[in-house]
Amino acid sequence: MCLIVFAWQVIPGSPLIAAANRDEFYARPSAPASWWQDHPDIYAGRDLQDGGTWIGITRSGRFAAITNVRAPAERRSDAPTRGRLVADFLGSKLSAAEYVAQISSDAANYNGFNLLIGDGKQLIWYSNKGEADPRNGQPLTPGIYGISNALLDVCWPKVVRTKAQFASLLCQGAPDACFFEMLTDTTRAGDCRLPSTGVGIERERVLSSVFIESPDYGTRASTLVRIQANGSAMLHERIVPVPQ
């Protein structure tokens, strides 16, 4: 994923509501969300190149999602795939806190990531780039949050804008279609508001919109997740056709 906005313990009866866009190179093969044959309790899309997934749920209400931290100068070509961190949590019986403790000793071997995991009782954000943030690896308190390709709640324009829209839709009790409409926003940020992540100004402009379009890379899927207080879970995915 490259953008996730979510409400944790804000809406009565729905402890977790999340809306997300997955941005990826068009050439990278993937399968749409479905129940996995090899892990029948997991419902998620699947990366067909390296395995794993970017966002998913289980029948018992577990949740996990991941975004990359954009730092091209630090990227290692031999790093393990980050999508396994999502799949492994969904397939485990560990609590969110236990899983973070298990992966923390090996986290530096991965390229930068933000991992968001929930076990029905706690929701934890963990990043291998955010050790200085006191929330990192700790249960999140109730609130509305956003993550793109920096750390939790870093004020990138798309995060600020989408969090505000998301909060408004939640207050209105808006239907799912409105959340998906929010995720189609192609507005680019002005140059003075762009982050500097090492990809150059032209690429920063392209990547600044909620919904990304470019010749080789863009938004591949939008997802809405709801975890209910009774433990039931829903993941609704809209696949974006790859440009021809």
Q: What is the CATH level 1 assignment?
A: Alpha Beta
Mean pLDDT score: 97
CATH topology tier name:
Glutamine Phosphoribosylpyrophosphate, subunit 1, domain 1
Count of helices?
A: 5
Spans where pLDDT lies below 50 across 5 or more residues? none
How much helix, percentage-wise, in residues?
A: 10-25%
Sheet with most strands: strand arrangement = 3-4-5-6-7-8
Number of strands: 11
Please describe the biggest sheet, giving its number of strands, its sense, and whether it closes into a barrel. Answer: 6 strands, antiparallel
Could you say which structural class the secondary elements and strand pairing correspond to?
A: alpha+beta
Order of secondary-structure elements? EEEEEEHHEEEHHHEE
When the domains are counted, the total is 1
Basic shape:
globular
CATH architecture: 4-Layer Sandwich
Rg (CA only)? 17 Å
Oligomerization category of the chains in this entry: single chain
Organism: Collimonas arenae
Pfam families: TANGO2
Protein name: NRDE family protein
InterPro entries: TANGO2 (IPR008551)
Provide structural commentary.
- This is NRDE family protein.
- It holds the Pfam family TANGO2.
- The chain has 244 residues and is an alpha+beta fold.
- The chain has one domain: Glutamine Phosphoribosylpyrophosphate, subunit 1, domain 1 (4-Layer Sandwich).
- 19% of the residues lie in helices and 32% in strands.
- It has 5 helices and 11 strands.
- The chain has helices at 83-90, 96-103, 157-172, 176-182, 201-207, and strands at residues 3-11, 14-25, 30-35, 42-47, 55-58, 63-68, 113-118, 123-127, 143-147, 217-227, 233-239.
- The strands form 2 sheets. It has a 6-stranded antiparallel sheet, with helices on one face.
- Strand 3 (30-35) and strand 4 form a beta hairpin.
- The chain is globular and about 45 Å long.
